[in-house]
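Suppose you are handed a protein chain with no further information: no name, no annotation, nothing but its sequence. What can you learn? This example shows the usual starting point.
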Amino acid sequence: MSDGDGGFSLVKILVLDDEAVHVRLYRESYATRPTEVDPAELDYGGDEASGSFGVGHVPVERKGFDAWEPELVMETTVEPEELEGYNIWKESGEEVHVEESELTEEPSG
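A reasonable first move is to predict its three-dimensional structure. Written in structure tokens, the prediction is:
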């Protein structure tokens, strides 16, 4: 997906539902759109040295997801542990309210 700064990042679609695309955002970034990737090398944790970060689960409105200009790189299985954040979100009853612009900004703090 486009990272908003002229580069590209990777997301994994965890769940598609009527309201949203539920994704995992990986911290790795690329100067050109990747055409293949080794999932074992991806991480969604923060990296203080580089200032990069990822997120285990984010519900994104479909129009926001489409604005990222995503392209399929590969298909992989969604493992049960990858759905932990989604399941917590679902049980909480929260609505989808994340806009595309919120995910391209650096976190404060």
